[in-house]
Amino acid sequence: MRIVVTSTLVPGTLLGKPIYNEQGKILVNANVPLTVMMINRLHKLGISYVFIHDPLSDGLELDSTISDELRIESTKKIEDAFVKFKNEELHLRWLSLEKSAPQLKGIIESLLKELRNNNDMLSLLTDVFSYDEYIFTHSLNVTMYSLAIGTKLGLNKSQLDLLGLGALLHDVGKMVVPIQILDKPERLTEEEYELIKKHTTAGYEILREVPNIHSVVAICALQHHERINGSGYPKGISGEEMHLYSKIIAISDVFDAVTSNRVYRKAMLPHEGLELLYSGSHKLFDAKLVRLFRDSLSIYPTGLTVKLNDGRRGIVARQNAASSDRPIIRIIEENGYEVSIPYEVNLFDDLHLLITECDTTLKQRVFQ
């Protein structure tokens, strides 16, 4: 299978992976030739890239950090907890979270188990989802990213449990923000932006009242939009004033935000999201934590078409656990022509080779 941008799809293309919604329902199925109507539906769903079948990528096994079942089950549990919280009377919202805490902590246990059982790097591109309620899936992804960073950092089990819960609930304050503002496709007004910014303090005030949730979890909700140079909100704190878990969640939060499909922005691919984080290292984000995140992530996911510095093009075939930015490439083109028999090169073994470009356009000639 190969990753391509949805805008380049042509009728007759075989979708490699189905498109799901948050409830696990298949919206567009795989393994049938795409029609113009189906391609238009993908556009309407806001899907910016998909996996396709083509002869050049036959046999490639896609990475999977968490199973479909765990992703769907966890998202449903998060939605259930957040909706109950939102529908509760204001003075009883803390009680709603107290009742949901065991279920949410169970999600952390399941995610940590998956991370321990999966020695490969994080790859959340394996399945393409259409998200009607972004906050629930965002909370799950941020938790997975944060746990990966915390594991690389060497945090112990109790620390990872706290970090995970802080990540899972970092955006709970957004449940008090009108959905029309959260999903507004146009530029926010100054008043709307100020209202959204209040989700940090709203989450903090509620979480600190929950008896069976550690106070650090409330700190994560409060500080995840702070930046190490003091340019964040709500307090404008900097450096060591930020809790370690808040620094981790800040990185995970931004990365997932820019690599997710949103009504007002197309999703970036992982290497583009990492470039954004690196541009903010030492200024906005802790540089050491950004490096640990890079080492945890499949920067160039399996199925992505890339161009090398010697002009050859190929498809990422497998990952190298020892080096997240030097995968194994299936070469499909030399000197502008398709090779008769694709072959593999290992970028970890040949340090002279570098990835210079990523190509997610669909070459129509593949299907002719």
From TrEMBL:
SMART domains: HDc. Residues 113-309 form the HD-GYP domain. InterPro entries: HD/PDEase_dom, HD_GYP_dom, HDIG_dom. This is Phosphodiesterase. The lineage of its organism: Bacteria, Bacillati, Bacillota, Bacilli, Bacillales.
